[in-house]
Design a protein that fits this description.
- It is a single chain.
- The chain has 348 residues and is of the alpha/beta class.
- It folds into two domains: 183 residues, Rossmann fold (3-Layer(aba) Sandwich); 137 residues, Phosphofructokinase domain (Rossmann fold).
- It is built from eleven helices and eleven strands.
- It has a seven-stranded mixed β-sheet, sandwiched between helices.
- Strand 4, helix 4 and strand 5 form a beta-alpha-beta unit.
- Helix 1 packs parallel to helix 10, helix 5 packs across helix 6 and helix 6 runs parallel beside helix 11.
- The chain is elongated, with a radius of gyration of 22 Å.
- It starts with a strand and ends with a helix.
- The structure holds 6-O-phosphono-beta-D-fructofuranose.
- 6-O-phosphono-beta-D-fructofuranose binds next to loops.
């Protein structure tokens, strides 16, 4: 009997997800004669029993599309006492011989635990625009996001220069600064602030003043949304929880740009404006890099399912696709010092 695999996409969507889904289905059906089932809305679909067959026709024409045809959600089955049992019941009900979970660290945490505690046969495909999953040098979605942010910074440059303003560009990156460093470096930012590095407000202001002193009347600061100014009063207002936490206990981030802008204006007297790029960074068509990476990782995941290598993830290392224990992808990969040092060399 043909093997049947389920495919789900969980967590924040990323450009390149459809390229990966297409590759999994094409390989699984075309090379391994498997059956594919699309599970809707990440782990939510396995909790509620929302799945239907995926055919070669269902994945035709999706390569260039952003988002995910399978939809996604930030569902944590372990947030309810019988969530894991419900998942396993539906896996049996749909007759799935394995599940390919495409997502970020939260999706992987659930996959790893279901594998370890409940015996779910699962394979992980890493994807996050934040590029902060351990084990893989790149996750698809990141390159598209960086290019969108870089283009925004390029545009902000010309208006910053015309008005002699300090311009703050707030980019995504809840826990890590990969997007900020790459987009900031590529876009010629004068200062890049990331969660991995402590922020010293006075140093930032001094850098801007020094730029003015040498005739540069504008400055571009790129800040990752996850940056925090420990103990700062204006920052405390950001932490007021008027938002619901998601099922992984995460609050929405964002707003640090405004806090910084007020402080910089107060301390330097320079007019300062903020642009929050937000979800524009996650939407739209994937770059060639993300389409190719999605295709490579998707194909490799289908091969692992055929070989019954469950409890594993696919990853990119030294531009080769490798297989690792899925647990590796649950850990966070911070921006390395040597990369930040390159960015820092252009500060000021
Ligand atoms: O999934 C990563 C990410 O894009 C983060 O960079 C960002 O903080 C978060 O998702 C935003 O999540 P949501 O789309 O749920 O607001």
């Amino acid at each position: 009997m043909a093997k049947r695999i389920g495919i789900l996409t969980g967590g924040g969507d990323c450009p390149g997800l459809n390229a990966a889904i297409r590759a999994i289905v094409r390989r699984a059906i075309g090379a391994h004669e498997m059956e594919c089932f699309g599970i809707l809305r990440g782990w939510r679909g396995l909790l509620d029993g929302l799945a239907s067959p995926l055919t070669l026709e269902s994945v035709s024409g999706i390569l260039t599309r952003g988002g995910t045809i399978l939809r996604t959600s930030r569902t944590n089955p372990f947030a309810s006492p019988d969530g894991a049992m419900a998942i396993m019941r539906n896996v049996r009900r749909f007759g799935l011989d394995g599940v390919i979970a495409v997502g970020g660290d939260d999706t992987f945490v659930v996959a790893e635990r279901l594998h370890r505690e409940n015996g779910l046969k699962v394979i992980g495909v890493p994807t996050t625009i934040d590029n902060d999953m351990e084990g893989t040098e790149y996750s698809f979605g990141f390159d598209s996001t960086v290019n969108i942010a870089m283009e925004a910074i390029d545009r902000i440059h010309t208006t910053a220069e015309s008005h002699d303003r300090v311009m703050i560009v707030e980019v995504m990156g809840r826990q890590s600064g990969w997007i900020a460093v790459y987009a900031g470096l590529a876009g010629g930012a004068d200062i890049i602030l990331i969660p991995e590095k402590p922020v010293n407000l006075q140093e930032i202001c001094d850098t801007i003043v020094r730029r003015h002193d040498r005739g540069k009347d504008f400055s571009i600061i790129v800040v990752a949304e996850g940056v925090r100014l420990a103990g700062h009063a204006a920052e405390a207002a950001l932490a007021v929880p008027n938002h619901k936490l998601d099922e992984f206990g995460r609050a929405p981030t964002g707003g640090i740009g405004q806090v910084l802008a007020k402080e910089i204006e107060k301390r330097t007297g320079y007019e300062t404006r903020v642009t929050v790029l937000g979800h524009i960074q996650r939407g739209g068509s994937p770059t060639a890099f993300d389409r190719v990476l999605g295709a490579r990782l998707g194909m490799a995941a289908a091969d692992l399912a055929q070989a019954e290598e469950f409890g594993k993830m696919v990853a990119l290392q030294a531009n080769k696709v490798v297989m690792l224990p899925i647990e590796v992808g649950t850990r966070r990969k911070p921006v390395p010092d040597d990369l930040y040092d390159v960015a820092k060399a252009f500060f000021g």
